[in-house]
Prior knowledge:
Blueprint: E1 5-6, H1 9-26, E2 31-35, E3 51-55, E4 58-63, H2 65-75, E5 81-87, E6 95-101, H3 105-119, E7 128-132
Antiparallel strand pairs: 1-7, 2-3, 2-7, 3-4, 4-6, 5-6
Amino acid sequence: xxxxxxxxxxxxxxxxxxxxxxxxxxxxxxxxxxxxxxxxxxxxxxxxxxxxxxxxxxxxxxxxxxxxxxxxxxxxxxxxxxxxxxxxxxxxxxxxxxxxxxxxxxxxxxxxxxxxxxxxxxxxxxxxxxxxx
Length: 133
C-alpha cells in the first residue's frame, strides 16, 4: 500500500480493497478503517468516530440501536454477509456487531463504503484512514 487515507468515494473503495488485500496477504490479526474526526458528522456526542475492522472473513463495527437497524437493512443487499454475533455490554451504549463476510476484497470495500455512508450516515466527502493493516 502506498497511501493510507482517502476522501473521495472511488479512492476510499480502492483504499479499503487494498487494505483488506494487504491484511489477508500478511495474515495480520485485523485491518482497521477509522473516520477522520474532522469528517465525523455522526451524533456521537464527542465519542469516537465510526470505525470498521476486518479480521479475516469478519467485519466488526460498533453501532447504536438506530445504526444497528440500518446495518440490518444494508445486509439485505449482501446475501453473502450475515450477522454472526451481537454483543451489548451493560457498561457500553450500543452494540458490537460481528458480520461474517466471506467475499473478496472489493465486495468488502463496497460494503465498508456503504456502511459508513448508510449505517453511520456520513457525508459523501468524509475522510477515512487505514490505521492498521
